[in-house]
Write a structure and sequence with these properties.
Number of helices of chain B: 0
Radius of gyration of chain B: 13 Å
Radius of gyration of chain A: 13 Å
Shape of chain B: globular
Oligomer: heterodimer
Distance between the termini of chain B: 37 Å
Number of strands of chain A: 11
Strand content of chain A: over 45%
Chain lengths: 110, 117
């Protein structure tokens, strides 16, 4: 079983749509959680950290459920520029290395 | 924000040659850097943790004699792929721990695309 599992997609949505991505992780020792965005042939870039209380950054909302070991990302009012692969990432604070999910591909269409 | 550079950004080499990739933290000191590898349509996989002034810690299945890591200063870590073969062709990305985000934020370099012929 993979440590971090995501639906690979692709998710094809029209501009303006709301789309949600889910992720589960298996290591209960994971302490920090993130969503990264990766464009084709580029390095991943931090989109947002994920907190148990839930957090929002503009059109993006992230949620964490530690009991279920489940993380989500909601994107509202999708833009063409949101097209990318979204990576669910967890970190064991002790090691500080990141474990990446395989990513969910989003394609926003005009 | 913190910036991490990598050099070269891409390299093509013949099978059997060695390739050195540099990872630099440009405006901060990084006692810990990480090396990841990403094959097409796959996730980033941690190869090793590079600690300044000490030996790197390799993940299971990563050959330490093939992937030599040197972290000789607080701003530079190097990864040398020795005797590279076509199966080593991949996207190699480094990251460094910065002081933002409570000391756990990782900043990624732009990656090095290695093609071994």
């Amino acid at each position: 079983r993979k440590e971090v599992e995501q639906d690979p997609g692709p998710f094809n949505v029209p501009e303006g749509a709301t789309v949600a991505f889910n992720c589960t992780y298996s290591n209960s020792a994971s302490q920090s959680f993130f969503w990264y965005r990766q464009d084709c042939r580029k390095e991943p870039k931090l989109l947002m950290s994920v907190y148990s209380s839930g957090n929002e950054d503009g059109r993006f909302t992230a949620q964490l459920n530690r009991a279920s070991q489940y993380i989500s990302l909601l994107i509202r009012d999708s833009k063409l520029s949101d097209s990318a692969t979204y990576l669910c990432v967890v970190m064991d604070t002790g090691r500080r290395a990141l474990t990446f999910g395989s990513g969910t591909r989003l394609q926003v269409q005009p | 924000g913190a910036v991490v550079s990598q050099h070269p950004s891409w390299v093509i080499c013949k099978s059997g040659t060695s390739v050195k990739i540099e990872c630099r933290s440009l405006d901060f000191q990084a006692t810990t850097m990480f090396w990841y590898r990403q094959f097409p349509k796959q996730s980033l996989m941690l190869m090793a943790t590079s600690n300044e002034g000490s030996k790197a810690t390799y993940e299971q299945g990563v050959e330490k004699d093939k992937f030599l890591i040197n972290h000789a200063s607080l701003t530079l870590s190097t990864l040398t792929v020795t005797s590279a073969h076509p199966e080593d062709s991949s996207f190699y990305i480094c990251s460094a721990i910065g002081t933002g985000g409570g000391g756990i934020t990782q900043y990624f370099g732009p990656g090095t695309r290695l093609t071994v012929l």
